[in-house]
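Thread: Protein fam136a, structure

OP (GT): Posting the sequence first so everyone is looking at the same thing. Length is 140 residues per the record. Can we get the structure tokens written out before standup tomorrow? I want them in the notebook alongside the other entries.
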Amino acid sequence: MDGAQARVQEAISKMVNSLDKGCLRKMQVDMYQCSAKCCENASASLEDVQNCIDACSKDVNKAQAYLQNEIENFQNRLQRCAMSCQDKLRDEMPAKPSDKDVEKGRLGLEKCVIECADSHVEYIPGLTKKMLEVLKSKSY
């Protein structure tokens, strides 16, 4: 199961990198340039400068919150799939399982969880595309 977990983590990492390079970094550049302009205003009060900087970071903060929520939703779906495997194992296990039953159940559980992980890794390209579209349209 460790291999499946590693594949999921690697796929999520690639997704985050793709989102960063595809959209987030540009948003951050814009935010920092906007913030720098706020700081260049010598006649502005401290409060005005801070409000300006806060306004500059609004889109990046919203985008990051959106991404975090989407990744959490994905991880929750994966966790529910694994829990479904555990439920299936419990339903199939006899009341007094033998060592053979326990080993068969363990192997079945492992196979089911690996299948969950693999199927969810396949969802990541579509999820990445959707998230990029949302980020680019700023409809988060």
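GT: Both are above now. Quick notes for whoever picks this up: The longest helix spans residues 46-92. Residues 2-137 form one domain.
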